[in-house]
């Protein structure tokens, strides 16, 4: 089975790129299942029901989340009812939503997706231990399918690398998200797990991790509050392709994806501060 995992989808530029290009990419690369981290899909901060439908309509089968999960409180309803969206599995017991799902590919093969969140340098919240949670969840999922893909949404590269080794041989792939900067360390670990520290970001390529660079520079240089919004200009598609053996679940191949696209008329830099969403930080 070939799976395409897409790094953090950022705002309208990221959503538009997927709407315009994902179907062709999926067909040309013989992709059976598409997974995307969508926690920044609503202009960089969370996701709502409408945007969830937009992402799935573009061809995404499972949307994973992270520390921006609750930036849009209305996500609570889809979390409770829609198996296409996951929140980190290491939320405390009783939290809304699910941390893993099992779905069928067009071929009939089953695939499991597990969403986890790290604890190192994650300032918004400290969740339960992702390592012990991962072991318990993987044992349950492997009872249904040997193909398990893990999105580990974490800040520290050390924590992500450690998770790769922790799950080596037990899952098909461990892919990191959150930093929005793609790493170049894709590999298959000794026991058969594909690994990449960070899948990168899908959306604006000419900003600062997706945000308008002038607004971010104002904060860094002048230490003054600034209204933040997605950058304009070029866009990028970041992710990773993995081939998983249908019997063992082991990864047979891993290919990092980073494609850059020139802006269309609607994405050329022109918007002034008034056009940005009213978020002051």
**Structure summary, number of beta strands:** 13
Radius of gyration: 18 Å
Proportion of residues in β-strands: 15-25%
Low-confidence stretches: 270-281
Reading the helices and strands in chain order gives: EEHEHEHEEHEHEEEEHEE
Q: What is the end-to-end distance?
A: 43 Å
Class of secondary structure makeup: alpha/beta
Give the rounded overall mean pLDDT.
91
Write the layout of secondary structure elements.
Layout (H helix, E strand, L loop, with lengths): L1 E5 L1 E2 L1 H18 L4 E5 L11 H9 L4 E3 L11 H6 L18 E5 L5 E8 L12 H13 L5 E6 L3 H11 L5 E5 L9 E2 L5 E3 L4 E4 L8 H10 L12 E10 L6 E11 L20
Parallel strand pairs: 1-3, 2-11, 3-4, 6-7, 7-8, 8-10
Antiparallel strand pairs: 1-12, 5-6, 9-10, 11-12, 12-13
3D architecture notes:
By secondary structure, this protein is an alpha/beta fold. It has six helices and 13 strands. The protein has helices at residues 11-28, 49-57, 76-81, 130-142, 157-167, 213-222; strands spanning 2-6, 8-9, 33-37, 62-64, 100-104, 110-117, 148-153, 173-177, 187-188, 194-196, 201-204, 235-244, 251-261. Strands 1, 2, 3, 4, 11, 12 and 13 form a seven-stranded mixed sheet that branches. A six-stranded mixed sheet has the order 5-6-7-8-10-9, with helices on one face. Strand 5 and strand 6 form a beta hairpin. It is globular, with a radius of gyration of 18 Å. The protein starts with a strand and ends in a 20-residue tail after the last strand. The model is unreliable at 270-281 (pLDDT under 50).
């Amino acid at each position: 089975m070939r799976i395409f995992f897409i790094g953090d989808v950022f705002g309208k530029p990221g959503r538009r790129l997927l709407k315009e290009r994902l179907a062709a990419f999926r067909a040309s690369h013989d992709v059976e299942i598409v997974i995307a981290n969508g926690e920044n899909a609503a202009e960089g901060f969370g996701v709502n029901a409408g945007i969830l439908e937009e992402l799935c309509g573009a061809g995404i089968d499972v949307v994973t989340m992270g520390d921006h999960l609750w930036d849009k409180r209305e996500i609570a309803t889809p979390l409770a009812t829609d198996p296409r969206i996951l929140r980190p599995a290491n939320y405390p017991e009783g939290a809304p939503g699910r941390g893993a799902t099992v779905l069928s590919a067009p071929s009939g093969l089953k695939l499991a997706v597990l969403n986890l969140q790290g604890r190192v340098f994650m300032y918004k919240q400290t969740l339960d231990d992702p390592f012990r949670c991962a072991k318990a969840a993987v044992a349950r999922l492997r009872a249904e399918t040997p193909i398990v893909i893990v999105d580990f949404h974490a800040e520290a590269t050390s924590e992500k690398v450690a998770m790769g080794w922790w799950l080596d041989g037990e899952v098909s792939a461990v892919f990191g998200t959150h930093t929005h900067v793609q790493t170049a360390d894709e590999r298959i670990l000794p026991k058969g797990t594909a690994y990449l520290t960070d899948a990168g970001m899908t959306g604006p390529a000419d900003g600062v991790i997706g945000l308008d660079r002038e607004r971010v520079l104002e904060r860094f240089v002048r230490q003054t509050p600034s209204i933040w919004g997605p950058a304009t200009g070029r866009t990028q598609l970041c992710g990773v392709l993995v081939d998983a053996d249908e019997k063992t679940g082991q990864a047979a191949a891993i290919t990092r994806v980073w494609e850059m696209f020139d802006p269309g008329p609607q994405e050329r830099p022109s918007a002034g501060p008034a056009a940005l969403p009213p978020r002051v930080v």
